[in-house]
Amino acid sequence: MNMRKDENELTDTTTEVFEAAARPMRRGWILLALMMTMMLAAMDNTIVSTAIPQIVGDLGGFSLFSWVFSVYLLIQTVTIPLYGKLADMYGRKPVLMAGTIVFLIGSATCALSWNMYSLIAFRGLQALGAGGIMATVNTLAGDMYSVKERAKIQGWLSSVWGISAIAGPALGGALAEYASWRWIFLINLPVGAFAITLIYLFVHEVKPHVPHQIKYSGAAFLLLSIGLLMFGLLQGGQAWPWLSIQSLFVLLLLLLSTLITIRLESKNPEPIMPGWIWKSRVLIGANLSMIAMGATMMAPSMYLPVYAQSVTGVGPIAAGFILASMSITWPLSSALSGKLYLKIGFRNTALTGICIAILGASAFLFLRFPGPVWALVATQLLMGAGFGLISTPILVGVQSVVGWNKRGVVTGANMFSRYFGQTLGAAIFAAIFNANLVSSLRIAPPAMQPNLPRANAVIGTLQSGEASPQLQLFLRQTFHAATHYVYLGLLIVAIITLGFILFTPAKFTVLNEEA
Fold it and tell me: What is the pLDDT at residue 196?
């Protein structure tokens, strides 16, 4: 049986209920609404990052500002699986609208913040809504479009991230400088209100009225377990050493919470993470691949802009555009992946993508100090093309092997895996970079030792331009070497990703509905 016929069979897993509801949908307006809601969540961190100096200057609390980002990532990621389950139980429309409304309430309250503690709390509320957006937008797109169409649609949705990566910092900086940092949150309100209006008017779901039973105690402990795991990864090596009493305490709480979760969820008639997710090789392989890909993404995101400024010597805006160049090829390869996965299959398309990403990571390792700007852009273009060929076929593939009533769960698990991988990658690459930077500073020439900055002050010293030319050169070379070790780690993680994709079956077959 050829691949095209297999994909047509997978398309038929959409329920008849959805097919009946799909005809009156004005899909163009719905796609616009999905892109607008996705942009709310996608642009949020990029638009906030450029306004941090103004926020700290107004509210104070410099030592706490990292939690403005950490709490958002933590709560958004933790809630994605729950929203995916709720979307299967109660429909995509109410969950997406509820998530967007919560996000907008969080945005409005962020704009009213009176100190850093209140801003962090309201960012958590924002993230609570963002989890619903991230889980449900992709699920609804999977409902609306066939397997052949989904790659193009994922290209459109991926383009939102590219636009956000470029427009977010520029818009955030402009609002902070010429208006007020509070407008970076208030600007979400009209955009979100318009998106909600489109969803309300044009999304018409008809779903079976099936009574549901969910034990929220199990869901609460599942979210607690995921939250403790991510909290430990975010704080370990940053707020405290990995080998410390704090890490041990978090680990013990995590083990206890996990045991309680397993006990409660095993008795739950409708668990958030059903057992059949862990029995399917297709889903296990796909989710492991997304964890590894998410980790891989973090190395350039964390270190390439700083490398470009500190080693290559470009300005902040140029460094941002170097990083954003990945967002050019990502949506393009995502949109084109449909033709490829219909010919060679989901897994083989993802294999093509990871090979391209490995090529991009390897190319960076051959860059000599200080490295030309065009070469940095080339590595990003390759990695973006690779990620587009991995993420879209994997997501479309897992959506295609289940019916409507399970699509939210598998989409939520897939999205959660990617964000969890990003958190894991941030911890791994920070440990690699810091260890190599500290090691290099220890072997500095004796004449430089009196003026040598600490590891956490290297970037500041390079940016200030106050160090002697010899010290500047040494620190740039040190930063160059540490970043190369990060990319070596990236290459290893990319090869692990290749292994997970190879573990995934060559053909994605429809899962047994009784599973």
Answer: 93
pTM, 2 dp? 0.84
Q: What string of DSSP letters covers 447-502?
A: GGGGGPPPGGGHHHHHHHT-S-HHHHHHHHHHHHHHHHHHHHHHHHHHHHHHHHHH
What CATH number should be reported for the domain holding residue 181?
A: 1.20.1250.20
pLDDT band at 2 (very low <50, low <70, confident <90, very high): very low
Tell me, yes or no, whether 148 and 225 share the same domain.
no
Task: Please state whether the peptide bond connecting residue 269 to the residue before it is cis, i.e. omega within 30 degrees of 0.
Answer: no
Question: Long-range contacts made by residues 467-473, C-beta under 8 angstroms, separation at least 24?
Answer: none
- Closest by alpha carbon to 437, among 477, 479, 472, 490? 479
Same domain? 57 vs 89: yes
User: Is pLDDT at 208 greater than 70 in this prediction?
Assistant: no
282/510 Cα distance (integer angstroms): 10
Are 80 and 200 members of one domain?
Answer: yes
Q: Residues 63-89: pLDDT tens digits? A: 677 788 878 888 888 888 888 888 888
Residue 74 maps to a domain: yes
> Is 161 found in the same domain as 66?
yes
Q: How many helices (H) and strands (E) does the chain have?
A: 20, 0
Residue 442: CB atoms within 10 A of its CB come to 10
Distances in Å between the Cα of 127 and the Cα atoms of 121, 132, 217, 284, 355 are 10, 9, 21, 27, 34
Same domain, 34 and 157: yes
300 and 355 Cβ atoms separated by less than 8 Å: no
Instruction: Give how far Cα 325 sits from Cα of 52, 320, 335, 358, Å.
Output: 24, 9, 17, 17
In a domain, 42, yes or no: yes
Overall number of domains in the chain = 2
One domain, residues 262 and 178: no
Under a CB-based contact definition with an 8 Å cutoff, are residues 223 and 79 in contact? yes
CB count, 10 Å around CB of 79? Answer: 25
402 DSSP 8-state letter: S
For the segment 459-493, what is each residue's pLDDT rounded down to a tens digit? 777 766 677 788 888 888 888 888 899 999 999 99
Q: Which domain holds residue 18?
A: 1-214
User: In whole angstroms, what is the distance from residue 148 CA to residue 10 CA?
Assistant: 11
**Cα–Cα distance, 96 to 98 (Å, whole number):** 5
Would you state the structure tokens that stand for residue 501, as one six-digit string?
Answer: 């994709």
